[in-house]
Amino acid sequence: MFVILGRVLSSLGVLVAVSIVLFTLVHAIPVSPARVVLGGDASEEDIAEFERDNGLDRPVIVQYLSWAGGVMKGDLGRSLIDNTVIAVTISQTLPVTLELVLWSFCLALVIAVPLGVLSAYHEDRWIDHLARVVATLGVSIPTFWLGLMLIAWGAVGLGWFPAGGYVPWSAGAKPHLLSMTLPSVSLGLYYVAIISRMTRSSVGDVLMADHVRVSRAMGLSRGRILIYVLRNALSPVVTVAAMSFGYMFGWALIVEQVFTIPGMSRALLNAIFRRDYLVIVNVVLVITAMFLVANLIADLLYRWLDPRTAR
Amino acid sequence: MTDLNRRLLLKSAALAAGLDLIRIPGAFAQDGTLNIALPNNPSTLDPIQTSNHDAMAISNAIFENLLEVDLDGNVVPSLAHKLPVINDEATRFTFDLRDDVVFQNGAKFTAEDVKYSYEYMLDPKNRSVRRTLFAPIKEIVIESPTRIVFNLSQPYRPWLQYMTKFMGIFPKGSREAKGDDAFKLAPADLGTGPGVFVTWQPDSHIELKRNPNYWRKGVPAWSRVMARIVPEDATRLAYLMTGQAHIISSPPPRDFERLKTTPGIQTGSKVAIGGMWFMQTNTKRAPFDDVNFRKAVSCAIDRKSIAKDVFYGLLDATATPAPTGVSYYNAEADKAVGYDPEKAKAFLAKSKYADKAEFELLVPSIPYLFDAKDGALVMQSQLAKIGIQMKITPMEQPQILTRAIAGTQVACLLPLMAPSDPTFIIQICFTNNQIMSKSSGYTNPELDAAIQESYKYTDAARLDPVLKKIQAILVEDCPNIFLGFVGVANAWRAEVKGFKPNTGLTMWIRDVSLG
Amino acid sequence: MQPEAAPPALLSVRDLTVAYGGRTAVQAVNLDIAPGEIVGLTGDSGSGKSTLGLALLGLARPPGRILAGEVRLSGADLLTLSEPQRRSLRGREVGLIVQNPRASLSPLHMIGEQIGAVLKAHLPLDGAAADARAVDLLRNLGLNDPERRAKAYPHEISGGMAQRVLIAMALGAGPRLLVADEPTSGLDVTIQAQFLDELWKTARDVGSAVLLMTQDLGIIANYCDRVLVMQDGAIVADDVTKRFFAAPRDVYSRTLLSLERVAPPVAPGDAAIVLEARGLSKSFRLRDGRKVLQAVDHADFVIGRGETLGLVGESGSGKTTVGRCLLRLIEPDAGEVLFEGRDMGRATPAELRRLRKRIQIVFQDPLDALDPRWTIRDIINEALERPDAARVSELLGFVGLDPAVAKLKPRALSAGAQQRVSIARAIAAEPALIVLDEPTSALTPLARVEIVRLLRDLQARLGSSYLFISHDLSTVEHLSHNVAVMYLGQIVEIGTREQIFRSPRHPYAKALLAAHLAPDPSRRRVDRIEDAKLAGEIPSPIDLPRGCYLAGRCPEAVASCRTQLQPLRTLRDGRQIRCTPVAERDGAKTDPVAA
User: Fold this and answer.
1) What is the pLDDT of residue B62?
2) For the domain that residue B8 is a member of, what is the CATH number?
3) What is the pTM (predicted TM-score) of this model?
4) C98 and A213: CB-CB below 8 Å?
């Protein structure tokens, strides 16, 4: 219990550290957001006035502290560019991205784990070769290009799916799920590759372990041995899966862009283009928090999977 | 790579069309919704703050002004029922207003609203981004509920053009009642236009509904407009192919030719008078401090081949700051510094940089409205042929802009999307104390006088000779390398009627109907 | 037992051939095992024993494949059966035990569940009945609180217990043949002996035959009825145990047994003292910062010139720490080390550097100790005053290596040759004392014999003293003049080789030596009356009891043992012993140095 508490505390520490680094880096971007807000033909005086009004002329440390103070009170601040409340932006976009990532993640797991297990069991047979082809494609096809191909095939060619856009649940489950299918596939395929390869090598290692040999020698059934193998092979898979989950938030940026999904990653991209300091910092922090939560969950899973670490 | 994507997309679309798979979009059209796809998410819908052209497609449907620009680029009456009466000095503009206009909130439109709107915009503390464009307005006088007079501090023709894009009329007292944020984010019931704001989901879509009390009878024909924000070129194209969008803006130039022949798809393009593309060279910095060197560069660039090979016809190539199709186009000026390799070599030989002919060009790394990179590459090879080495440095657009404004660039290639007035860019780049003055470092009293003179005239007969003279001056001194005017292109589905690209870079949706 | 007159074979193997890719690992092997027979299978590393063992169950480690032959188990050829049929025979007819018992259990499943799974696979039991049966088996193995143990994970039980669990699993369904592949490698001698006793007894009780594969001829001499020797995938010798040890017919076995026939080294007459340790102590603070591990506890010993002191003990006894403290690789907490009369603890850094040249160390794993990027010449040159090619050649010659290897890098050499390089480097500076820290443990039996010979030769030629640290009693016996036995950081008995090996007096030394399996079928452990057996296992060296550390396990313990520290006392025959009851029976004088 204390260990978990410790992990939570250290995760919070990481968040604070990330926020400081981010804040400093973002403020090192050479072009002021004033230029973006006021347009190319604003005068130097206008820009100085804007910066003064928005407190951008204060030292970075002061800006950081005032922002951090707001965060403590649950106020993430407002966008410099369009003055929207950042907490609202995040609360609107996070569920979309989270859902996209979750679908992709489930899809990746559901395909990757059985594929990895099968190819480890049938090393150098057709299923293993197939898995290798899938993995090679998965890691080498750029997500961006895959998205476009899926649109060309599934939307323009077959007409089964919309070419993009996000249909909310409220518009019906079927249109919603149809709108999430292609994005989830294009985000998930890379991780099918990564996780299936990891599963294959992990299961392969366990299959070589003494206890599996002994279990065979004891005449245990394949199913029983599979139970032993899976549980023993899962730890590294959990690690990779947790990291994948975190990385997906980053890659969602491209998928949301290609499929025109109003998620958080897209909000981040816009904020970057617009030098919207506070939005950048807050969104990246939320993504970092997701990453940390995924790792925390992975940690708990470990403890459950592996009694040796449960101390 | 992206080239391949789109080609594949088009190919599969062609295949689908052959199999009758391009659906006449039942679900999208039946309820009378017009779907359009725009590349950029607006930052605001406030008519006095808009700078993004995509946003104007929406804000111009909500807000209207005294005048508007028709699809052929002519200024025509809108809330004024005829063009203004202008005194000889062009300092007094008298507008007669329509009597049959009501705002979306039901209030009747009068001269009070006009005065209120302009004065609000002109008040520096309200920080309109386009306030400077209207700065010469000295005084606004209401003569009657349907007659209003604008007194200007100096002759100033261009503001009539500017009001068609950068300003809109809203009800008296509405700013105090609703606040600026409402104008920015949810301007419901604040305009007189055909579309009433319903909702805006940032980065996703903006929804308008038909204004049932619109003063033009019979329009709009649609019941709703759904404007989706689709930044990815290929995806936007896919939206068009699948019928998720009826009209898209900015189809990728290289696909434009092919789109023209795609069944079920229509295309159109028009030169944007405000979309001037030129190399912003700094006459205060070597090697562009030598007019012969500038002319050598200008004559070395084959603009027509760039227009054809790189922009697939979506560029009106000209070496003078006027589109080739307008009445004030100065063909002689164009010829003087247009493509001629022999002349270029001669100019270069005369210049003091004949031995060390090299410079650095800043090019936006992420395209804005227009991808300049490929064009820069072609120029690089053309310049190399006459012995000028051009180094291309990609840089983010805002950073280039900052440098250009500070005058620290040697040369940069940044499309400036301006109001459709022929002197706007010339004024901000080549006269004193303007935003882009330092980017050229060039001024000329003769030019200043000509610009001021042009402000007096609103009729082509008197205006065109002055504009031609301005071109002659600029070609003689060649402060910048003019390349051409950007074409605005749209693609739409066959069932869309009444749509044409306009010269103002925006999408004009009022008169569109779905057949 | 007369193999010729044996009843029909339980296992009969004919022309069995197994290959990994193009390399044949088992070459046309024939063998028979009679019911109830315990057969030893020995051979050097890589001779194909393990591959053969697996092939007997119709298994092969990928990418290996069984190419030809038959494995008849009670008449039926296992290799012609379908996979499900084979599976039902495994565990039910033939069981397998491999080395490293803990790795043989799935680390993430409870042991009761794992035993139950095997039972369910072969016996008509449902889940609950299998679980109950598993608990019964654990109880029969002498585990207290078997219900709780059944819910333990492998990491929560000791290695010894894991072995018993494995035996329970292997024998649970009552197979008539058990294949045990190096079942005790890596175990301490007392646990090894316990395990083999248990295996032997259980097999005899249920009448199972056992094929016991091991490199340790001591195990074979003590437990097997018959011996097979494997070399390069083929069986080169097959004989009854007694006859085998009397006159081994194959070269491999003869070489291994050759040491037994050479007289142990004679102690030099003048034993000028080279090194003396007094009250040497070292404890480590554990990572949690509170608990203290007492690694070495007041160790006293002397090493004479040209003499070897063997330091024996089981894992955790502190013997390695003693070696490192002598060189001050680890700084001792207390006590002094007098080297050639000088106190190492008070030596200035410059003196210490000079002294270090006079004391060298050879580590267990030569690859860890040799920089893999350097050539052998560089490695030895580094130990010399200045580079000297002739001296390098001479040193390589001393350790029996071709001087041509000087230009190679360590990885190009076999483990035995690497260890020779380590030794060459150690003798380069002509040290007075070499600390040999388990130098033979990582080697194959053949290489081990060679190194022991080399060390003896070098000592005879150079007159160096050795501190020989090992858990391998046979090797210690072959090399040492004097022997110290350590238990939980303390030296519990120290005396001459004959004293310790022939008649140990300390109860722990007695137990340890009783567990020693000499490769001599006339001294079989199973024939001896078990008088030296200790209860339980070695306690953790953290939180040691107040009195004698052995008191809890000792059959001779009296009440005072539990409360009083035991001083090291000298007996009348000159040996020293840390056991007051034994010393008093001997009438020993009170030792001047009290612990």
Assistant:
1) 94
2) 3.40.190.10
3) 0.70
4) yes
